[in-house]
Prior knowledge:
- The mean pLDDT is 83.
- Helix content is 21%, strand content 19%.
- The chain has a two-stranded antiparallel sheet with strand order 1-2.
- By secondary structure, the protein is α+β, with helices and mostly antiparallel strands.
Amino acid sequence: MCKMTVYHGGYITVWNSEIIIGKNTKDFGAGFYCTVIREQAVRWARRYGTPVVSTYTVRMNTDLKILEFKEMTEKWLDLFLHAA
């Protein structure tokens, strides 16, 4: 299994994420949103009075089917529209 670093921008350090907590108004519903782009997490965190970027190293489960979109395509838009 490969490892990757992901970032979460918020107002507190998150030591243990809970997927069931969060706003249901996000792009794909309630969840724990992370990015591989640190600058993006920094921008998200700056929305708060006390910005915090949490950093995680995660192991990818190679048995999972993962959709990766490097750009906004019609397939990406279809997934985005159907998730709402």
